[in-house]
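User: Quick one: structure for sequence A, then sequence B.

Assistant: Sequence A:
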Amino acid sequence: MIFCWQLGSTGLVDETPPLFAASGRAMSITGDWLTPRVNGLTRFDKPPLVYWLMGFFYSLPGQSIWDPLGTWSARLPSALSTLMLMLILGDTVMRWPGVHIAAPRRAALVTSLAFALSPLVLIWSRIAVSDALLCSTLGISLLLSWRTYVRPIKKYWLWQWIFLGLAVLSKGPVAIVLALMTLFAFAFIQKDYINIIARLKPLKGLSVALLVSIPWYLLELLVEGKPFWDSFFGYHNFQRLTSVVNSHSQPWWFFIFIMLVASLPFTPFLLLGLFESISALIKSKNLDFIEPDKSILKFASCWLISVFLLFTFAATKLPSYWLPATPAAAILIGISSNMNINKSLRYKASLWALISLSFSLALVLWLSKTWIYSVYDPEIPNFSSEFISRNLPFKGSLLLGLTALSGLILVVKNNHRRFYLTQIPLILFQLFFMLPLWNISDSLRQLPLRQVSNLLVSSQKDNEAIAMVGINKPSIHFYTKQIIIFEANDAEGLVNLADRLNAEVRQGWAGKPIGSANSSQTVLVVIDNQTSGHPHWKAMQPIKLGKFGIYNVWRIDRVKLQDRANYLMNYRGESPDWRAPNPEKI
């Protein structure tokens, strides 16, 4: 219910998910399962596993009937892989909960739910991108690594490396870096190098992981050559690590903030788990060895810290980069909240902090009428009134208040064994607050784009191109299944559009000069309200076909468009630059 309920009832959220979904669907339609393509262009920013899984669901019989919006097929890889990781997390903690855990099943339940209810997991498990798949494949690989160390079984070690290979096919070499950082740190503080190496077989294992992942990279490099190398390895991996990409610059403490937010409202027990793990290390002074089956807290700490260090030192920082750390955070929460330390001051302080956080969040929602109207986004008009009219402040504050109340009952009764009771209201919070909030956003932000797409399809003439200027929404390409020319709102964008209609060539589409065979005299243009007010666009004298939300659908005479482009080039010095390399080109 957390991951899959209403998964296909809303449209894809711009801007990135439609690119993933369209690439997966294109594989299903064209039969080219090697090279991801979207909007007639190659898409090298992520490896193919997520596209393969999406393409599989798009290929199922009757897909257009059981998945009319195309969002079930696009989101199921994220949802199902997250569910699988949740189950393996619970199973691992239930089998080997570590020290001072009287009720392993309760600890396993709390751990599983702490992961599933993380705000980051709640969001990314329902979005059609590759982050949840990386989190799941890497998380399963690391959990199986620790389980192999605890209980070596013949050939069992293979599976952790197979899943690591799948992680490399999910988002690239970063999976190997994170896995090796975690295992090296754990071996260092566990002081059991011989057994860890003997049981995990890292040299053989890396060979297995590469055997799973490397064939696609080699084939793609053979077929696509330098553009693939420059885009995937140069831009999307090396450049993101060493320099700021797409203005995603953040301060050094960014992931401290994300770590605190990503585990709300159970962050106090994450900090308690880290404190207990680090305290144990300090007390041991020389990093003493402890029995493998009691080392899960130590392993989870190494895992979380490895993610923190790698992405803190990376130049480009995004909240989704913290997602691979959420399983480790869940283990720390599950173990620390179920330790037999309920009479300790640290445990009580953490429980009181949980109560205070839950109550504060409930109060913020209860008072939302005083601040919600200051939240304004032109792409989501009337959001505030819809939020209030659906009674979401009451529902959200009630459920968060029940979380605080359940924690208070645990304090009064001095009984930490029912800690999972604090999580039950948050399951309901996902169903009765988050999903309705998602539906509001879809009806206000995404529905107009689906309406625009329907009008474009029904209005398009033979060989008539479609363009979108100003705000770029890849979902227009996804829903129309047509090549869309995206351009900026400035004068250079207009010049680019005119030139591209004459000369650009993509897979499945080619621009044609005005008057040539099979060319169209007009072009369909989707233009937002702000862009349509710019002088160079106001002069187009378009035929206005429709308006949905902030988006207008125009039919423009290409002769007028070309005349305007010629004027801007001759008298204002504008020139087309669309041929210049652009790794983010859509």
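Sequence B:
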Amino acid sequence: MDQTIIFSIAGVAIGAIIGFVIAKIMEKNNASKLTKNAKKSASNILRDANSEGESIKKDKMLQAKEKFIELKSEHEKVISSREKKISEAEKRTRDKESQVSSELAKSKKSNLEVEAKQKDYNHRLEVLDKKQEEVDRLHKSQIQQLEVISSLSAEDAKTQLVESLKGEAKIESMAYVQGKMEEAKLTAQQDAKKIIINTIQRIGTEEAVDNCVSVFNIENDDVKGRIIGREGRNIRAIEAATGVEIIVDDTPEAIILSCFDSVRREIARLSLHKLVTDGRIHPARIEEVVKKTQKQIEQEIIEVGKRTVIDLGIHGLHPELIKMVGRMKYRSSYGQNLLQHSREVAKLCGIMAAELGLNPKLAKRAGLLHDIGKVPDAEADMETPHAILGMQWAEKFGEKPEVCNAIGAHHDEVEMTSLLSPIIQVCDAISGARPGARRQVLDSYIQRLKDLEDIAFGFQGVKKAYAIQAGRELRVIVESERVNDQNAADLSFSISQKIQTDMTYPGQVKVTVIRETRAVNIAK
């Protein structure tokens, strides 16, 4: 049994060894076959690669030859074009050389001709000089012979001739001047009247005297109570903010605004209209509306000035002068509206200057600006005559000397230096002398109210001053930081004494000093 197992194991081992050997032999045979196949494939690949490389090499060589031929043709074209340009340049150079040579020949020929002519002229000048010397010698000899014959020298003869001619010319000129003066005396007055009458007839303007009272119409009498406010605080706030006296009486559906300053009166009227339309009437709202209305009036003044200069055909006026022209709408001269008066004077001046053959546009310019001195900005300007102040402003803002002189001389404050000045003076008199154009009493009344306000402004701490009730009351608003209650009472007494000593007025003047303290904070 054991031997059988041993033999079996030995047989298995021998079989395994024989199988291994057979496998190795078969593997070796397969490897040799694979090697042969690989070598054969490699030789095929190399052969294919060589053939493909040869074909690529031939293609590249063909492409290179084609590129070389193409570049060679382009190079030949460039060379041919350059040669063509060079030949053209050479041709132009030869043409210019021939042209220059011909010009040089002509110039040489011209120089020869000029030299020949110059020699000829020199010869002629020499001949002429000799002839001139001979003529001068003969002239001197003739003069000497004439002096011997007449027993007078040449200078004496000249003197006698000039004296005789002077006498004759003087007599003739005196006769001519005398005749013209007599003719001018006969016709000057008639012509002047004719020009003035024709000028007046061609200007037809309305005459309206400015008043110191405006009427504010309301829908019903219930609005009066809202305007007055509780214990009259609203009406007091309006009067303090605008400086206008508001009269609320039994007149149905009407409130009267009284003030000599038409600007303040217009601000008050527009502010009341806004307040009544809005419905909110209380002191804070009143102050806000009044400030906005003041800005609106300032803008309207500029627009009025622009429209006026456009209507009159005046160009190139300085913006400050345009603003002054607009302010004229709210000023009056002896009751006559200042803007209407200035427009009328401008038109009269333009027509009269055209009749006299002068510049009508310059005359219109001077006529419109002749009274700008009546709308001063500062209180210090009130002391200067309005004609001089207007002339200074015109000079400051670049107006022509003729215009400046016409403004300053229309009331004879300065000497007239141009024909424009008497025209402005005459037209100003024509506009103001019409029946109903002016009212002397109103101007003196307005001046008295202005003097009242000026007296108040002369004291320290005065913020605003308004003359109301036709000059019977002076309402003064002081700065609360600078004036206390005791000083307010003293100030009221001092102003009343100043008015009493410096002014002449009918009746009594009540001086009311108002001191107000406000504390304002904003909750955020």
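Confidence is low (pLDDT under 50) at residues 206-210. The longest strand covers residues 462-468.

User: Thanks, that's what I needed.
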